[in-house]
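User: Hi! I'm working on a homework problem where we have to compare a predicted structure to a textbook description. Could you give me the structure for the chain below?
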Amino acid sequence: YEKAPVPIPADGVSGVEIYLNVSEIDAVTERVLNAGATILAPKKLYDWGEEAVYLRDPEGHVIVLAATPKN
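Assistant: Happy to help. Predicted structure tokens:
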């Protein structure tokens, strides 16, 4: 079995987002960055009520880490 090639668009960003709800957004973000991801959009509070950070992994996949802010 060979890994099928996945074409990456010219801008280096996949057309698919992996959206993960996490309990510790800062710790998970740090872990993903240490694994080679880069930040596409820093963490901020969005209109839908969650904080989210958008990252790109080394293969070009977009990973969104989100959490409901603790009051």
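For your comparison, note the following. The CA atoms of residues 12 and 25 lie 24 Å apart. The radius of gyration is 13 Å. Good luck with the assignment!
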